[in-house]
Amino acid sequence: MTSTAILSIDEGTTGTRAALVSPEGKVSCVNYRRLSSHSPRSGVVEQDANTIIEETINAIRATTAQAKETNTEIVGVAITNQRATAVLWDVQTGMAVVPAMVWQDTRHVEKLEQIADSWDQELIQHCGRSTGVRSPYLWAAQHIRENPEVAALHQSGRLRFGTIDGWLVWNLTKERRCVASATNATSSGAFRLRENSYHTGYIEALGFPADLLPEIVEDRQWLGTGRAEIFGTEVPILAAIGDQHAAMIGLGCVENGKAMVVHGTGSFCDLITGTSFPSNPGKHEGTLTLTGWRADGVSSYSVESHTATTGSAFDWFCERLGWFENAMQISDFASRTDSSHGVLFIPTLTGIRVPVVDHRVRAGITGISTATTKADVAYALLEGVAHFVRSSLECNVDVAGIEPNEVVVGGGVSASDTLIQIQADYSGLPMRRRSGTAEASLRGAAFLAGSGGLMWDGLGEAVSTLDKGQLFEPRMGSDQRESIAATWRRRIDREIAEVKEN
């Protein structure tokens, strides 16, 4: 008997996955390929886009082979991807011509700071964010201006530009469309949210040529025909959505007031406002107003705050220092104590994003004494992440103008009971962890792709397949919570003040 499924592709910063998602919301036949990033100098974070597509195709082929073995018909394809990572490629050779700029990159922060006074208010009002610390358009413009090979390709009409969604769609489809979905366009920093269009004035001010702008598409729509030599048969690609937005849907956050925290390379906190635009955009510099997803001509909005290096900070302690084997061993050691006993960790390896944005603030671990144990350090690592989650949630509420009654958690390290309990205690909000959170982005992209009637009649029906999960209630009193938060704020304020003085 033949079953049906959507093939979901999740191209993240540290790896790319392909999997099947059934009408019951079950994720199966997951195939993963690891990806690496490179930082040749401070502020620069790059990846090989050619390797990204190669490994993505390898993962797809492994999953389609398993689909054939299990007699599963793939009826559609969904894509979710790391956002604001940019690629320049040659349409004749099909190859990326320079390393991709990863979303963690801050090489252009000084230039963006120079134009902030002229552009920030305009961008916050229309695009939901300030100039920020990165710009794919500025990055591409610099390559065209300073790299003779790239300039020649542009002059000959062979150059294309896009974020990872566009890079994947171009490579995977017969039609070779150059597109950017609404969620990916908004994350790139020059997207008019209400009009669903580019802010061409700002893009031109950055020196980016308008003829290279990808076509804006909805997150759910027909994007092209998947190539038979990759998928085994021609199959429609029906969705392309940023990874955090896909995770929101995959965790069941599709209604106004739903909140989510996902831990991956960084920790992202999102709050959905639905079709209502957030009431206080720009109130906090690092809290962004976004298109949560767009389908059938309607945008659903969200606000987002994040800390860029939490999962990658754990990796740093494990791989560079060798203090722990992996993130779950950190959780295991942390569960052996009830506090950090004075040890404090600030997970800001590439700068701070909340409550302010300052790329100069660096990570730190302090309070270590001769009595400090490995368990104390592990607890401090989790505690540092939980502090930033609380701060992010508070900023989201301020900007959105609404408050959640609980937070759904996801991502690999959300498997840590200790971390999720600390998050509940420090935020004062219940934390709900559903099963299969590590596959939330895969599931969410498939839910979106299939919610136009292919598998489900709307997102509400799709997310009804999810289990209720485990609820972590706050155990800490409000006075203790506020005292801990106040101590943390003072420490962060000192860190920010020190970098400003220097």
From TrEMBL:
PROSITE patterns: FGGY_KINASES_2. The keyword Nucleotide-binding applies. This is ATP:glycerol 3-phosphotransferase. PANTHER family: GLYCEROL KINASE, SUGAR KINASE. GO terms for cellular component: cytosol. SUPFAM superfamilies: Actin-like ATPase domain. Residues 259-450 form the Carbohydrate kinase FGGY C-terminal domain. One of its GO terms (molecular function) is ATP binding. Belongs to the FGGY kinase family. Pfam families: FGGY_C, FGGY_N. One of its GO terms (biological process) is glycerol metabolic process. Residues 6-250 form the Carbohydrate kinase FGGY N-terminal domain.
